[in-house]
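Appendix B: complex inputs.
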Amino acid sequence: MSAPKKVVLAYSGGLDTSIILKWLQTEYGCEVVTFTADLGQGEELEPARAKAELLGIKSENIFIEDVREEFVRDFVFPMFRANAIYEGQYLLGTSIARPLISKRLVEIAEMTGADAVAHGATGKGNDQVRFELAAYALNPEIKVIAPWREWDLTSRTRLLEFAEQHQIPVAKDKRGEAPFSVDANMLHTSSEGKVLEDPAEIAPEYVHQRTVNPEDAPDTPEFIEVGFEKGDAVSINGEALSPATVLETLNEYGRKHGIGRLDFVENRFVGMKSRGVYETPGGTILLEAHRGIEQITLDSGSGHLKDSLMPRYAELIYNGFWYSPEREMLQAAIDKSQEHVTGTVTLKLYKGSASTVARASDHSLYSEAHVTFEDDAGAYDQKDAAGFIQLNALRLKLLATRNRRFK
Amino acid sequence: MSAPKKVVLAYSGGLDTSIILKWLQTEYGCEVVTFTADLGQGEELEPARAKAELLGIKSENIFIEDVREEFVRDFVFPMFRANAIYEGQYLLGTSIARPLISKRLVEIAEMTGADAVAHGATGKGNDQVRFELAAYALNPEIKVIAPWREWDLTSRTRLLEFAEQHQIPVAKDKRGEAPFSVDANMLHTSSEGKVLEDPAEIAPEYVHQRTVNPEDAPDTPEFIEVGFEKGDAVSINGEALSPATVLETLNEYGRKHGIGRLDFVENRFVGMKSRGVYETPGGTILLEAHRGIEQITLDSGSGHLKDSLMPRYAELIYNGFWYSPEREMLQAAIDKSQEHVTGTVTLKLYKGSASTVARASDHSLYSEAHVTFEDDAGAYDQKDAAGFIQLNALRLKLLATRNRRFK
Amino acid sequence: MSAPKKVVLAYSGGLDTSIILKWLQTEYGCEVVTFTADLGQGEELEPARAKAELLGIKSENIFIEDVREEFVRDFVFPMFRANAIYEGQYLLGTSIARPLISKRLVEIAEMTGADAVAHGATGKGNDQVRFELAAYALNPEIKVIAPWREWDLTSRTRLLEFAEQHQIPVAKDKRGEAPFSVDANMLHTSSEGKVLEDPAEIAPEYVHQRTVNPEDAPDTPEFIEVGFEKGDAVSINGEALSPATVLETLNEYGRKHGIGRLDFVENRFVGMKSRGVYETPGGTILLEAHRGIEQITLDSGSGHLKDSLMPRYAELIYNGFWYSPEREMLQAAIDKSQEHVTGTVTLKLYKGSASTVARASDHSLYSEAHVTFEDDAGAYDQKDAAGFIQLNALRLKLLATRNRRFK
Amino acid sequence: MSAPKKVVLAYSGGLDTSIILKWLQTEYGCEVVTFTADLGQGEELEPARAKAELLGIKSENIFIEDVREEFVRDFVFPMFRANAIYEGQYLLGTSIARPLISKRLVEIAEMTGADAVAHGATGKGNDQVRFELAAYALNPEIKVIAPWREWDLTSRTRLLEFAEQHQIPVAKDKRGEAPFSVDANMLHTSSEGKVLEDPAEIAPEYVHQRTVNPEDAPDTPEFIEVGFEKGDAVSINGEALSPATVLETLNEYGRKHGIGRLDFVENRFVGMKSRGVYETPGGTILLEAHRGIEQITLDSGSGHLKDSLMPRYAELIYNGFWYSPEREMLQAAIDKSQEHVTGTVTLKLYKGSASTVARASDHSLYSEAHVTFEDDAGAYDQKDAAGFIQLNALRLKLLATRNRRFK
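Resulting structure:
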């Protein structure tokens, strides 16, 4: 790979990406463009502008954008249509944000004539893979620079020395090492490393940042109603809301009731296991609600097919293959199934749990006429079941007859 | 089908199966053998003996058995090795009990020279299918009689008339109709019908029988430790327990903390949707614990394959295909994966939730040396990730290059 | 089911469906509408009109249609996009024709105010299921009449008596029983029953009707070029052709070279095994050609996902679930994959075999630059493979280290 | 990676691996152990001994072994139980041999106290991955040396210079470059590269080495009978044969009749497409025969599950994951299905094709009594089909009713 001439950096304004910014300038002597995205991580973005300017970035090279609506509409919602869960429990909060960041990095590179993009993910994690696969899928000519895999700033001390040496301001509270590492966006906050590294140790309460401890949540349950249209949440308690506002509102409910905490050991794509604490307050409610509305609007054929495709779909997102033809194929199948996933779900929120307690829909497939214990006026002929069972049993009988001969 | 001469009836001792008993005698003039199983449903069994005798069953034709250990060891545990969940949420508590009952019915039929078995499941539900597929798979010559599909006792009034006419004692509280219908065994209690028939109505609290309302559960969390060996729970808080005792103990913890309630609309195999309220206190804890121990003892290859097979496996059990070659194939694969699923999991139980908070195992695949944010002493070379990403990206780049030509 | 008033019958003009026609009139006293479709089965259709009139059908109630283009375009081609094969070998020639017939039956019923449709499939086969599931999926109110499951004309003798009794003309060669039963359409001819009933007996040569014996095929191979656009065959040897004409042309090539014979024992949906001889001359060539073009235009992600979905897709078609949401979901995924499946394939046809020998496409993903044994000018860095392997090996190493501890 | 001290080299005795041998000695100054395996590739092995000695290998460090029976029994046969095919057509002949070679390399390393193994696969192909994943899975401490990824002998000229410089004898016919590259073992011969690099060019006839051109094959078909036990071929024409002898015999039949040629473009695990010509004469017959016997001995539940697992299984073998827990899980499922796959299959071999024409088994599930067009004496009640269809249709009717409301 020849040296980059102009690089678009995913820039948070924090110490680590500021060091990367400076390192790109000094190591490659290249022009740096910064991209700072509001994904709902709950931080002010404007300080990133001042900091970038301080580090010598030209103002036309500083991009700060609010991508929250796009994030929820084009990434979070399609994923939730699939009820995607990785390894039985993880809602993919980090995984789903990476492709959007890469997409904007590549677009800004094309706009500004940059030949490379750079990110601050380490060489041990999944995020490097997600950033880079997405970038290459969108622009096969782009260069991707991953300083953590290249440089020799391999200890906290050396990083701080580099910062000092290059006049990068270091906040006092960043001089020591954080007791764990955090990633956040509107969908979730993940914490890992350091105090969490022993999976046999219970995570300290202070690790949690997005949710109250269920023990401190209200002692009375709260009931909310989530409205869906074609598989996407569109209203809460009857009020129509934009995608991002839906998720923000659910986040607030989840935070308050201590919903969506997960202590988890997962398998990274790069081959090792890691332990994290995830908080996905709104997403956890949304998944439960989506399942609730699917219960009455999806038939078993669609539902079972979706269930069988889901693990592969979730794995693709986790592994960074959002922009892959197979993810798009699965998405086409999933979206096809959502045409009638429209209606409302009532959920009970209480001390860490979100539970569907009622659901209603004009598109419902539930037929009280068929299922009733009462007289069903001929909707269903119980005698049909005899034939149904006989033909389902036929091969089992033939097997049993055969197998008896060889006992 | 020629008329049966001797029938083994799955007999609970309750009104409905007593009516069936008498109906078999009068309709077919055949000898009836009763089989009453203790599956941990929490009812006295001996009254069933007295009642059967009263209805004219010879004492050598009355079989009352405690099958709880067999139930948990040979049915519940194998199923939990798979983390089986039907349609995203249901733990299959009713489904998994049916094959065991059919197995004993068929065995008793062979022992007593009976040519038929009979059950009390209706023509609208899944249980008829489960009973009958299992029976035919175990004995292809057996006749199965399902009175609810045959007789004309299609209303409560006619049932009671038949009972009166044949001197079947009717308990006072059975004269009226129950507000919902119940099935119970050691794994769960399910309630459906009547007051639950409208899925848009919140289920009344009195439907729940096996768990306290989370709101009434203790205000302080309780922590327990579940020990596993080869995928099966073998101890609680360090005390070795038999399969049934493990489940009973977890049930007691679950009951106390309001764990395992599910309000659910599902797709029956016979083609309609139904709504049920399930309570699976111990099973819910067990599933969470099993996942917890798999997190550190199963690698991603096994885990992801298991996840992708699970929906099919769960569907087979739900649909009544426990005794099918494909369920046995899947079981062989799943059991193969459990050889090292050994260790302990710590769970927090609190107001409706069971959450893994720590896990430890001599068989752990978690490598702190690899994952650490600190210096890993060469366990992992971050530069390897660059090649890993490049080769994973290669096809995406080729795709992007191709697709650009056709934009 | 109340008695039908007006029935649309799938009518071939042959003896069996003529008997059904008359039986519907006499049994139900209902008006009969006949629908005769040209699916490319290679029979004159107009005689069916005369026969229907002779049997008293009003001319406005006689529908004779050429549906060949629709058949290939909307049924055969979508199925071939999936490379659908049932149980490893069967190309689904009968299965794929049934939904189209049912669709037209239901449409004609709606047009003519009929309340029922009828078909001539027996109660042992798959076709009854396919006809009826399609009909119900398209019109949930329609009645379906399956005379073979209802009447008592259960022997050849009684059928002929009924024909005689009702003045149905019986061709001389139909007085005896055919040595096997045949179904044909443009995609294939299937033969089963009678002389084929013992799967240990080699099928007599005279069973084959659509293909010459490979031993009698030309001694010189013939090469043809099939052109594809978005997964569908659109030209042969450079000449653009309509869907039906493509298939007819391939059929002629296949017939001449003895291609597409299959002697097969399959599992019917109704639970039994049956043995059939299939001839799918053009379809066999088409499948090979489609695979050939996918080899260079589909990436591994799409291709492997397609392969893994295919068995389920084929089973759905075989079992009669063409008009089901899950088939449509799979179709959406498959069609999504075909956007660049465009190009040409050269096939060698010789004595029973069709083999891809060359393929070319502007949409090709094949990169000689990457794969070459010669100097690749930096297209591919072999050192990347080391990192790729290390990270793929990491979990295997951790497993091996763990497993060694327990030997 | 520290420098290896003693290396076990997969040594063919050919020029390339002789150069590697010498390079390992000169580059690392390490002791070299050679392992030469007879996998049925059809070459004399003893010359490899002389050549190794000539290159200075001590006689106790030269391992020459006939592993043909192990290869077929423990690798080829388990794979054929699965009917494994990669990307619809490739029988995995190269892929399945690599794990066995790695297994012996690692075992010999442990026996001789070597700390490394080495292979002659390039950095562009799949074989490096297969060799190395297998080695690491069997011994996580082993070093693997892949000279083609390390050295600078990147052209034919430099290789020959190195050979000359180190007194490695070069056969005259090796001075020029071969027009394509070959890998062979008892299961297949693969050819790729050079004259085959353009997939739009028809492969020259001289590329084929293991099969006669179908046009030159006998003009009369030949019929053979293959006997199976539990899924493995155990006899031909009634004569019991060892695993390797079965395959050799089938190879001879296949060679003679021109069976098993495949011109194929496949997706390599490392991300690029490549084109190869494969000849798998005996394997192609074996696959057809195995399917033939499964047709009558496997029920649909097992068969369809096997079909759906197969693509994943084949991908695992292709990608080098033979020694992975997920392959072993799938194998456990597949082997479970083969318990009754016992019987005989008659095949017709003719000019490139092997076709099942008859099959017989004491374990057959085929029931003429059920399938017959004649009177079946009550084996099957056609009326059962009505109920079967009604319940299968129920959800489709409910869907249709629902969907009509939204048109």
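Chain D touches chain C through 103 residues (CB under 8 Å).
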